[in-house]
Automatic annotation (TrEMBL):
Pfam families named in the record: Hydrolase_3 (PF08282)
Keyword Nucleus tagged: no
NCBIfam families per the UniProt record, alphabetical: Cof-subfamily, HAD-SF-IIB
TM segment ranges: none
Keyword Electron transport included in the entry's annotation: no
Protein name: Cof-like hydrolase
GO cellular component: cytosol
Entry keywords, A to Z: Hydrolase
Length: 271
């Protein structure tokens, strides 16, 4: 049982979207999750999204839940109460250099930005076809072909296959100070080393003057690793990547088995 002083402290809660709040099979948010998030806000907690998606790809379904703010693009974009707080923009000449290196290594590139995302295809068969189909089904029509010396992004994804020179591209990324996040076979997220879901949490909690021990994070996949390692109160969804289990404080139930609601109740964050 928490004492009165502990209960009076403001708490900051951070939630990934895909696989954590939104069921990747139904593409819906479970009703138990919706009710739990509302209860957390009523109890005085500050509730944030912390996603790999750019803000331009946060759906109306998510925004309808009235989060206090959004940490997007793996920490490259942060908004509080609808106002920009932080943005790490990769300079256009660097974006162009990345695109040209990707072409040389036979890699497809998806540059994520707000308000527009840029895609460079042609090297990998069906590289981003499924991803773009999902985004367009969600109502996002801001994906356009790459324009040399104009297109820019805050982070990017790549698609590669057996014909790609992935090792050469990884060496280039390391030299340019980018982090390679392997998502699954043939797909990876690339983020500036200065940014992550963990750095985003520090920006937010400092803005609210909240101690790290009063933060709680909820995730399911490898791009959640920085925040799951950074925050003591870390929760992995039951449907999450198994290799992440040893590094989290708690493994909750699956997303479709009231995992968010159960974890919030177990922490005493909701009744």
């Amino acid at each position: 049982m928490k004492d009165e002083g502990e209960m009076m402290k403001k708490k900051c809660l951070f939630f990934d979207i895909d696989g954590t709040l939104v069921d990747e099979q139904t593409h819906q948010i479970p009703q138990s999750t919706i009710e739990a998030l509302r209860a957390a806000r009523r109890s005085g907690s500050v509730v944030f999204i912390n996603t790999g998606r750019p803000y331009s790809h946060v759906s109306a379904m998510i925004k309808a839940l009235d989060f206090d703010g959004y940490c997007c693009g793996c920490g490259t974009e942060i908004l509080i109460q609808g106002k920009p707080l932080y943005r790490h923009q990769i300079p256009q000449p660097v974006c162009q250099q990345i695109k040209e290196k990707a072409d040389a290594c036979r890699i497809d590139l998806f540059g994520e930005n707000t308000p527009t995302c840029y895609v460079s295809l042609g090297h990998v068969e069906n590289g981003f076809v499924k991803s773009m189909e999902i985004l367009r089904s969600e109502g996002f029509n801001n994906i356009v072909p790459w324009v040399d010396h104009q297109s820019e992004f805050v982070k990017f994804c790549i698609a590669y296959d057996q014909h790609s020179d992935l090792e050469a591209f990884k060496l280039f990324l390391n030299e340019m100070k980018f982090e390679f996040i392997d998502r699954f076979d043939g797909f990876a997220e690339i983020v500036p080393q200065a940014c992550s879901k963990a750095t985003a949490i520090d920006v937010v909690r400092e803005n609210y003057n909240v101690d790290l021990h009063d933060c709680y994070v909820f995730g399911d996949s490898t791009n959640d690793l920085p925040m799951l390692k950074h925050v003591p109160h870390s929760v992995l969804m039951g449907n999450g990547t198994p290799s992440l289990k040893p590094i989290v404080e708690k493994v909750t139930a699956r997303i479709d088995q009231d995992g968010i609601a159960k974890a919030l109740k177990e922490y005493g964050l909701i009744g």
